[in-house]
Please model this.
Amino acid sequence: MHKKPKVIYATFRKKKFRVIGKVSKRLQEEYDKDWTIGTCELRKEKNPVLFVDENLANEFELLDTTIHEALHATFEKLSEKSVEEGATDIARFLWRLGYRRINRDT
Model:
């Protein structure tokens, strides 16, 4: 039996985002985007989506990408360079503190 993915929402500065880790064909067609390892829709969208590929094998890359997209959701006007640098700095800090994903199924 195929398990239906759990729907997760996160709120960034009072704006609710649907968080997904896999992209269905319907979603690809609906949003007509290039879904790379992560993307975040603009806050002005009615029901914005934040996507981070849950199948990233590298745990540090998963942490970095998750923070990167969360920064986009929170601070839409930050430059890509600022987001990249900030996300990686925060990811390194959290990694050194021992933060890791506990269970890949959650």
